[in-house]
């Protein structure tokens, strides 16, 4: 009962028995929720807390992504990026290739495994100044094979 009251005090008032069971299984604690809020995560809902916790999105990851140039820290975007392996280190690698990707482009680059060796192979084939969208199309349509 105390947990439910603390969650309600933080704005999470739509608790169901199933959701509470999920929180217990994933070890969602009010301290972690407060840390995530304090780290700047927005649009957190009772529903997406479990996704954040299951993917091990923590304040360090949130702060790392903000420091990497992505201060808009929506819960669903953080979940999407973490799910496909976007990390602050990968952001730096992408930026080192000369790109300034959006969060969605980072997700696409991770999903389609667009990395420095791939970009270099495309350059060696004569493709210069390719955009992220063009690189994704090359991967999607398997034009690199």
Task: Please describe what this structure looks like.
The protein is mainly α and 145 residues long. The protein contains ten helices and no strands. The chain has helices spanning 2-9, 17-26, 30-38, 48-54, 59-67, 75-83, 88-96, 103-111, 116-124, 132-140. Helix 2 runs parallel beside helix 4 (48-54) and helix 4 packs parallel to helix 6 (75-83). The longest helix has 10 residues, at 17-26. The radius of gyration is 19 Å and the shape is elongated. The mean pLDDT is 95.
Largest sheet: none
Structural class: mainly alpha
Q: How big is the Rg?
A: 19 Å
Helix proportion: 55-70%
The portion of residues forming beta strands comes to under 5%
Name the shape in a single word.
elongated
Low-confidence stretches: none
Overall pLDDT: 95
Order of helices and strands: HHHHHHHHHH
* Helical stretch tally: 10
Please tally the β strands and state the result.
0
Kindly report how far apart the N and C termini lie: 58 Å
């Amino acid at each position: 009962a105390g947990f439910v009251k603390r969650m309600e005090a933080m704005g999470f008032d739509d608790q169901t028995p199933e959701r509470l069971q999920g929180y217990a299984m994933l070890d969602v604690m009010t301290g972690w929720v407060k840390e995530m809020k304090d780290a700047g995560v927005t649009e957190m809902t009772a529903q997406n807390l479990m996704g954040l916790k299951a993917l091990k999105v923590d304040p360090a990851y949130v702060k790392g992504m903000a420091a990497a140039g992505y201060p808009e820290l929506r819960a669903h975007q953080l979940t999407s990026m973490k799910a496909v392996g976007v990390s602050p280190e990968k952001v730096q690698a992408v930026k080192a290739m000369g790109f300034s990707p959006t969060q969605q482009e980072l997700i696409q680059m991770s999903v389609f495994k667009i990395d420095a060796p791939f970009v270099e192979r495309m350059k060696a084939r004569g493709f210069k100044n390719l955009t992220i969208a063009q690189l994704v199309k090359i991967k999607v349509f398997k034009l690199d094979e």
